[in-house]
Amino acid sequence: MQTCASIVCLFLVASAASSVVAQPAPAIQLKQLIDDAWQFRLREAPTFATRFGDHRYDDRLADESLANQQQRAETKRKFLARWQAIPRNPLARPDQINYDIFGRLLQEELAEYDFGMHLIPLTNRWGFHIWFPELPQQIPLESVADYENYISRLRAFSKYTDDHIELMRAGIDQQLVLPSVVLEGYHDSITTHIVDDPAGSLLATPLRTFPERIPDSVRRRLSDSVKQAITDSVVPSYRRLLLFMDQEYLPACRGSIAASALPNGREFYRHRVRRFTTLDLTPDEVHQTGQTEVRRIRQEMDAIIEKVGFKGDFAEFVQYLRDEPRFYAETPEQLQKEIAFVLKRMDGQLPRLFHTLPRTPYGIREVPEYIAPKTTTAYYQPPPGDLSQAGFYYINTYNLKARPLYGIVALSLHEAVPGHHLQIALQQELSDIPPFRRFAGITAFIEGWALYAERLGLEVGFYEDPYRDFGRLTYEMWRACRLVVDTGMHYFGWTRKQAIDFMAENSALSLHNIESEVDRYISWPGQALAYKTGELKIRQLRNHAERELGNAFDVREFHDVVLGSGAVPLLVLEDNVNAYIAEMK
């Protein structure tokens, strides 16, 4: 009996040991989780998958219905439970970074869902109805199959529109709606696409330049199908959207502008502050930082006014800049040429600042007319994941009197090189990080880098003209003011007029730009806090590295460290820089 008991005991011990051995190591568990979540994301976001270079879902649009939103959140909660079950300490440093960023992004997505942000699926400057007409520029159209996939997506737009209307109706029921003030003039973004002749639709542009390999007979069939899909699906969808917006949504929009006025609004805004800064900051701390930065930058601006010998105060100098014709382009072509010249000069200076440069090129495009009046001065569109196209810097040529030439250096360095294009293209070309990080949109890092990039022009001979330096300070002041007015409106009870007046008193931005920007902050709470917060952290880390390393500091090596992991939360960036300093010392 004792022998049998011993055998049973040995068997149980062996079985336990076997089960331990069979359990995947934490690194393997993490990799599998990240892979599973990535495949889920590609399935759930087909147009993102296409941009990434995965063409399995090129014939469809996302299911954005209420039921699928709930199912999507449930799947993410299961991913979160798997993430929480993985021990972090045994992971190597690169895997710990993956672990931390994956968990952070997942928790933020679930928080957004729990706060009901999927029920407000558009803003005054962005939404499904605005990006969809740009689809032909964002997908491959090289073969018959590509065109047939495109036609399938045109047909799917009807349900896609109804899904978004369903979300907004639920938002009305739960009092999760946009402020009415930011929707003034929204008609143009919809009515532009309600056309009598489908050939006049922006979505018909692929019919103008077929690839040569497609024979004429097939071109005619594809042309007819595209036009039919526009007539039967796209145009009626925009009509339904316009009717819904006019008759249901706009009457239900709120008069208040503050995020804190939403259900559970103050907690929601505190979440937004943490999300977009990636730091454990309060609205009060952000507001005070903004006030401090505004005072500092204002002193530098006043010094330039004195330097150029202007006889008058700040407000009079700003008015002079707004009225003086030499500071403005007369045609969109002139504005584009000025910008192209600035960027070509910067291209030649990049080796002084960077060891590693991206292989992917960039180009310049005009902001589409139908959104130009309500959108920002410029923005950047990254290259697709397979790097089959360039990145593009979009320039707003609407209302040229709102686009001063003295600001184009800072603006262009921000949007193209060494700003967004250089950073995002390098990130997408990284081969040693998982895909979710290659395409991570961590705003504090991305926008913080781009604002820091504006300042790099000082180091390579830009801004020697005092007016252009004033333009640089104007853009920096713009981002500092955001810290004050975003928190002011969403947390401290500021009115829209208070925000506009504060920015007008402290910056040289045109009134058109100021009003557009304030409306953007109203409809997108917290996002505007990322720029200055990220830039301050990068500058702080650079100053620290310069002090610690002295003559051994090389700005090109520092930039390789900052950009070498892609977009990361600011505390991860701080750890990376500190590790670099320790290694150098």
Describe this structure in words.
The structure is a single chain. By secondary structure, the chain is mostly helical. It has four domains: 26-115, no CATH class; 128-255, no CATH class; 268-537, no CATH class; 538-584, no CATH class. It is 61% helix and 2% strand. The protein has a three-stranded mixed sheet with strand order 1-3-2, covered by helices on one side. Helix 11 runs antiparallel to helix 18 and helix 19 (496-506) crosses helix 20 (511-523). The radius of gyration is 26 Å and the shape is globular. The termini are far apart.
DSSP strand count: 3
What percent of residues are in strands?
Answer: under 5%
In round numbers, the mean pLDDT is 93
The total count of helices amounts to: 23
Strand order of the largest sheet: 1-3-2
Helix content: 55-70%
**Count of separate structural domains:** 4
Outline the low-pLDDT stretches. 1-21
Characterize the biggest β-sheet: 3 strands, mixed
Distance between the termini: 67 Å
As a whole number of angstroms, the C-alpha radius of gyration is 26 Å
SSE string, helix = H, strand = E?
HHHHHHHHHHHHHEEEHHHHHHHHHH
Oligomeric state of the chains present here: single chain
Q: Which term fits the overall shape?
A: globular
